[in-house]
Amino acid sequence: MKKIAVFASGSGSNFQVLAEQFPIALLFSDKKNAYALERAKNLGVPSYTFELKEFENKVAYEEAIVELLDKHQIDLVVLAGYMKIVCNTLLSAYEGRIINIHPAYLPEFPGAHGIEDAWKADVSQSGVTVHWVDAGVDTGQIIKQVRVPRLINDTIETFEARIHETEYKLYPEVIRELV
Ligand code: GRF
């Protein structure tokens, strides 16, 4: 079994779904007030948090992350709502071992507002994508993706909820194959 670290910056609902199905060695958050940290406590998952502003620059910040991952002998880094771009320090140490989930059907609607952008574009369907992380924003090799329809009576909330429900199925499916 590979040792998994999950990275989350916010709510951590994907983290929670994963932690209920897989042993998670650690949660890392770049936000001290992330609700994901609360979830980790409740789930008994060790959590670590430090913020970019505590460091001189992003290199030093990512060096601290690499040190944490090395110390715990992490095999797979699972980004789940981690809202920072992964830079060279972390990438060069862990490339090929970092995956991300994106709430759209890449390459459609990359970036931080995948759901909202798809909604505003009036698409009849969007989707969810799990991909390897490279130096770009949501550009890495796609592992698996599924379509999610936008229904006639949808509000952005119901559309968003359907996308999240799809994430909660797809991410564990992919991780099961990888570990
Ligand atoms: C998810 O929609 C994920 O696809 C995106 O950020 C969101 C994180 O939600 N990258 P949560 O923190 O897992 O609730």
From TrEMBL:
UniProt-annotated binding residues for N(1)-(5-phospho-beta-D-ribosyl)glycinamide: 12-14
Binding residues annotated for (6R)-10-formyltetrahydrofolate, in chain numbering: 58, 83-86, 100
Organism domain of life: Bacteria
Reaction equations catalysed: N(1)-(5-phospho-beta-D-ribosyl)glycinamide + (6R)-10-formyltetrahydrofolate = N(2)-formyl-N(1)-(5-phospho-beta-D-ribosyl)glycinamide + (6S)-5,6,7,8-tetrahydrofolate + H(+)
Annotated Formyl transferase N-terminal domain residues: 2-175
Biological role: Catalyzes the transfer of a formyl group from 10-formyltetrahydrofolate to 5-phospho-ribosyl-glycinamide (GAR), producing 5-phospho-ribosyl-N-formylglycinamide (FGAR) and tetrahydrofolate.
Name of the protein: Phosphoribosylglycinamide formyltransferase
Source organism of this protein record: Streptococcus caledonicus
